[in-house]
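Lecture 7, part 2: worked example. A protein chain together with iron/sulfur cluster.
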Amino acid sequence: MKKMIQDHATGIGLSLFGVAPPDRFAGLPASVHPASILPEVRSILVVGKEIPRGDYRGVEEGTLWTFASKHLEQLLLLDMVRYIEQQSGYEAVPYMAHPAKTTPLSRPVSPDRPLPNVTLHLEYAAVAAGLGEISLIGQLLTPRFGSRNALGIILTELELEPDPLYSGSLCDHAACGKCAAICPAGAINPNKTVTLNIGGRLTELAEVNYHLCRMCPNGAAPDFINKAGQEELMLAFTGNQPDVVETSTVLTRRNVPNIANAVCSRTCLAYLEHAERLQHRYVEPFRDTEPWLLDTWER
Ligand code: SF4
Ligand code: SF4
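Predicted complex, written out as structure tokens:
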């Protein structure tokens, strides 16, 4: 069954596919836990595909402002859900990139349930499903595409064999530090980090001052499509990370802007390609000149 589902994913153009068991989410608060949405969940699937490198070109040149959404198109996610339900007879729930932003309620429907909407954390789920790792600046890195990933989550009652956690290493952390060094605002502090444990895989995150990122003129976007995935960036981790107590702005700020196209993330992309760390190669390098940079006051 898993092979059939994965083949279907491949057939509709999804090149990222991983399965996490529920126990890799153990200890997360109900407000961000998959079982709050599907109590009988036995498998958490993370599917996705690459964001084209061309989506970063306009900002890299400073001539066309775009932003790279980390969310997979809904139609592809629904296609997968239909296939799983039709083939297996088990329910499958798409975790929508754009859940209803408002509910008629300002309280839980009953005292034993969390407030709607429960939000799931894409990066956490992707690491739990073995797709890659989270970088120093909080972005999912996969061995094929680096940070260029658009993802969706499917919760299902169908039990599928879990994928092993990713055992490689992509982000070079302190040995690289190029994302921090290039930021004109000095928003990334690579010397102040917090270590997260996702299903046994340790992840080191730098403190990022997102107050500065919100004012960043170097490609960060007030990306409200991204917001649903960003809010839980802080909430998701704190519940099962006893050592993490709001020591990092990565974990404690809401309304985080989308920094995928900002110069910090584009520098990471250029670095990983230059170091030949990624499986998906291009004929021409992403960057062959120094990037343009503006100070925050120039916005
Ligand atoms: S530039 Fe990329 S690889 Fe280097 S430390 Fe930053 S996130 Fe890691
Ligand atoms: S988004 Fe802008 S301000 Fe924030 S870390 Fe990246 S370059 Fe610096």
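Strands lie at 16-20, 43-50, 92-95, 133-134, 140-141, 149-156, 188-198, 201-208. The longest strand covers residues 188-198. Keep this in mind for problem set question 3.
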